[in-house]
Amino acid sequence: MSCATCASGKDGKVRGCKNNGTCGSDGCNKLTVFDWLENMALPSGAEPFYFVEVRFKNSRKEFFHNADQLPILMGDVVAVQAASGHDVGIVTLTGELVKVQMKRKGVTKEEAQQLKIYRKATQKDIDIWQEARSKEAEIQKRAREIAISLNLEMKISDVELQGDASKATFYYTAESRVDFRQLIKDMARAFNLRIEMRQIGYRQEAQRLGGIGSCGRELCCSTWLSDFRAVSTASARYQQLALNPQKLAGQCGKLKCCLNFELDTYLDALKDFPPTDCRLQTEKGIAFCQKVDIFKGILWFTYKNDATNWFALHKDQVSGILALNKKGTKVEGLEGYAVANPDQSDVSKTIETAPVEDSLTRFDTPKKSKPRRKKGPRRPREETKDQKGSRSSSKPKRN
Questions:
Q1: Those residues with Cβ within 8 angstroms of residue 82's Cβ, 6 or more apart along the chain or in another chain
Q2: Residue 24, Cβ density class (10 Å: 0-12 exposed, 13-18 middle, ≥19 buried)
Q3: Quick one: residue 253, left, alpha or beta (phi over 0 = left, psi -120 to 50 = alpha)?
Q4: Other CB atoms closer than 10 Å to residue 98's CB: what's the count?
Q5: Is residue 154 exposed (0-12), middle (13-18) or buried (19+ Cβ within 10 Å)?
Q6: What are the sequence ranges of the domains in the chain?
Q7: The domain 130-200 is classified under which CATH number: 3.30.300, 1.10.287, 3.30.310, 3.80.30?
Q8: What angle do CA 93, 96, 98 make, to 5 degrees?
Q9: N or C: which end of the chain has fewer CB within 10 A?
Q10: How far apart are the C-alpha atoms of 92 and 74, rounded to whole Å?
């Protein structure tokens, strides 16, 4: 769903509403909820739920009470109550689904009744709101300069001005506690606004700023991901991924959220596998598991005294050997159970047929440079023999 102004123009370029996430029809906003109960009539005797969900800059959403029972629809710009003054936002959800969202986010009816909707935003409200939004980039730049001059170890990542342009909320990230009392005084003097500082995490910062991930697509947290689940290195271990921080870290410097997307599938597949810390009792010695291939259903084992030779066994074969070990029976060896690995044979064929290349270290040893010959004619030298038979050279004497 998108607004009519997002269609292509005559020249083939996308026109767009250019409202930077404040599209009036609410089609360009991220995390938009489709109201599938909008066209359904309420049962007899049920009262309408006069609470609405209003979205502000980025992903900040709050619930407000429609005390005056105004005819409000999704996409309407409304002026709502704030701590002081009023704020301007866009209605993202109305009706019975608001009750579900409030229950999901743990907001009670009494808490939502404290914030009310004043009115539908007038043209004057919208003009002040848009003018305040246009000043945010300049205010953020000036605030960073003030923080640097005070030698504060913090990063101001985003600024949000209230709809009536009377208050500015600065979102920042920091490693430790920051004393920004002097910063607030300097910014209040410079901007003539009420200042509020709000610390956020690095994932919330990436969500607000957005970007392109290593997969080539927009960040999940800035497009559709609404909550952050804990991500641990165990997710990478279950999926047999190399524990390389450069590969597993996202734009925020934390582990990628997409590590959890396929984790449940891997956990379901591992239920049929024997434990990776199992030991196979053989007559040649104890064998340990070194690697697991979930897709092929193969486990690689090596003997305790011979870690260089790997034996590929199917998961059913491993389960059978473990069952024999529980009965006190040792198998003769893993050679009889080993599965031929086509990958290794293909690699050996390519190595044999590959053309011989130069050594990779051919550039390591520097070449010896030959001595340069001096240019110009040389003077002839006269050689004479002395009495002992040795040769000596004598230069011509000058007159």
A1: 162, 163, 164, 167
A2: middle
A3: left
A4: 23
A5: buried
A6: 4-121, 130-200, 207-268, 279-342
A7: 3.30.300
A8: 45
A9: C
A10: 5
How many C-alpha atoms does 352 have within 13 Å on its Cβ side?
6
DSSP for residue 363:
T
Read off φ and ψ for residue 271, nearest 5 degrees: -65, -30
Amino acid identity at 3: C
Residues 6+ apart with CB under 8 A from 394: 381, 382, 384
Beta-carbon contacts of residue 301 (< 8 Å; ≥ 6 apart): 280, 287, 288, 289, 290, 310, 311, 313, 318, 334
Tell me the C-alpha distance between 385 and 167, whole Å. 106
Query: Taking the CB of residue 159, how many other CB atoms lie within 10 A of it?
Result: 22
pTM above 0.70, yes or no: no
Counting residues of the chain whose pLDDT is more than 90, the rounded percentage is 32
**Full strand arrangement of the beta sheet holding 194-199:** 155-161, 167-173, 194-199
Tens of pLDDT along 230-274? Answer: 898 889 988 888 888 888 999 888 999 999 999 999 999 888 888
Helix, strand, coil shares of the chain, percent, nearest 5, are 30, 20, 50
Residues 6 or more apart whose Cβ sits within 8 Å of residue 86: 79, 80, 118, 125, 162, 163, 164
